[in-house]
Every structure is written in C-alpha cells, then in structure tokens.
Amino acid sequence: MNLALWICAGLLAVVALTGGISKTFVPKEKLSAAPGGGWTGDAGVGLVKTLGVLELLAAAGLILPAVADVAPVLVPVTATCWVLLMVGAMITHGRRGEPNFVVLNLIYLALAAFIAWGRFGPGSFTG
C-alpha cells in the first residue's frame, strides 16, 4: 500500500510540476494555442499564474513533507486540495465541450483521492 501511494504521489507531483511550470512561465497567448489550453484565453493572466503557482506548491506538498518528515500530514491535505482543483478543471473543460480533458482531470482526481484516503487512513505516516 505504501509503495502504491508513493507511486501515485510521484506521478501526480510530476503532473502538477509540469502544469505549474507551464502556467507560471509560459505566456498566456502560447498556452491558449496549446491543446487543452483554450480556457486560458478567457482567463486573466493573474488567474493563470496563480493556478500555476498553486500547482507548483502542490507538487512540493505531495512529496517534500513526507521525505523531510516535517508535517507529513500536509501530503493528504495537498491531495485533498488537488481534488478540489480537479473539480474546477473538470467543470471548466466540461463547459468548453472538451470531454477528453474532463476524463484526464477525473483520472488525476482519482489519484489524488486515493492519496488522500491512503495517507489519512491505512497508509498514514503516523502509524
């Protein structure tokens, strides 16, 4: 169980890091031309950059607290926040008629829910 939780956290951290870097450092005009990035054309630069920073923090929050053994409860808290972020992403892509991205966000949501459940419960770092 512990290994599965670490693998899921690692995969999700890579997803968050990739998305965070692109939203934080790639110009909004370039993002809006990318597949799945059309929503950025309707969003303000500040919102896109804020979401990027939140994704960078999520990437760190899924891994670093457990590795450093400093407040490891932040791992499932971060995963729970990621679930909420993915609900928003699914709503956004759903409204834009992008079912493939809704499914992709659902997969990310499921990974995060598994991490939250596992790290709050049977795979907790405290037990």
From TrEMBL:
Its main location: membrane. It is a multi-pass membrane protein. Pfam families: DoxX_2. GO terms for cellular component: membrane. The keyword Nucleotidyltransferase does not apply. The chain crosses the membrane at residues 56-89, 101-120. Keywords: Membrane, Transmembrane, Transmembrane helix. It is found in: Membrane. This is DoxX family protein. It comes from Actinoallomurus iriomotensis.
